[in-house]
Amino acid sequence: MTHTDNPMIFVVGIIGNICSFFCFIAPISIFYRICRKKTTEGFQSCPYVAALFSAMLWIFYAYIKTGEMLIITINAFGCLIETIYLVIYITYCPKQARNFTLKLICLLNLGGICLVIVLTHLLAKERTARIELLGWICVVLSTSVFAAPLSVIRVVVRTKSVEFMPFTLSLLLTISAITWLIYGILLKDIFVTLPNIVGITFGMIQMVLYGIYRKNKPVKDEKLPEHKDDTNQLQIVVITHENVVDVETGESKEEKEQEKKQEKTESKEGVEEQPQKEG
C-alpha 29: how far from its chain's center? Predict the structure, then answer.
């Protein structure tokens, strides 16, 4: 069944395109900041490389299946916007991160997609078998992309703060997953349906956590795990330690304070004894 056979499929697909469009443009503020500051600030390129690879695979899947223009349109936009993100990232990231990103792009977005195309044509001679093989590849990859928010969920649970998990984005991702789930069910396409069940699950978990921790105060100077600075961690340890040992003498602050108090009392006693001797 295609959207030409059922107008409802077309309507749901258009809504899915709109929701996914806003999900794709969500990181624009991050890359605007990168352009303004001319630094990537420790952000990672892996999610954007994976998103580009996923969009490329879905375009190939829709092309092989034929008649899936709505899947092609949104993923074509996804390829465009993710490519722009990666160009900005490569422009302003450090040399080591740039080399890693370029290797990852060559491995996944060039080598990976070519390997998938060759394997689907060699291992599946018939069109139906080719669609099924490619569909399962898309399911596995899309599920891993949907599982990406696990790191953010872990940060929310650890810090008990939703500062790093905006409710609007979580809601938008959930609505997008629900829309594409309905689209897959109406289309009777299990490969479109399955990944979005995972997406809805993670989206609901994020919104539940938001409801639990939304009243908590934001954590000051807290960063995502991959953005933490080791020097900041050391500073926190030093500040929170009450018994800090002096590097030069090996004595604690409490011992030093006790010695100072004893010296003061001894000096006072010495001052009091002097007048008595003079008398």
Answer: 14
Q: What is the pLDDT of residues 79-104, one digit of tens each?
A: 999 999 999 999 999 999 899 999 99
Q: Is the separation of the CB atoms in 221 and 232 below 8 Å?
A: yes
In this structure, is the dihedral angle defined by the CA atoms of residues 209, 213, 215 and 218, taken in order, positive or negative? negative
- Report pTM: 0.69
Long-range pairs for 166-173: beta carbons < 8 A, 24 or more residues apart: 167/207, 167/210, 167/214, 169/23, 169/26, 170/203, 170/206, 170/207, 170/210, 171/203, 171/207, 172/19, 172/22, 172/23, 172/26, 173/23, 173/149, 173/199, 173/202, 173/203, 173/206
Measuring CA to CA, which residue among 141, 209, 215, 225 is closest to residue 174? 209
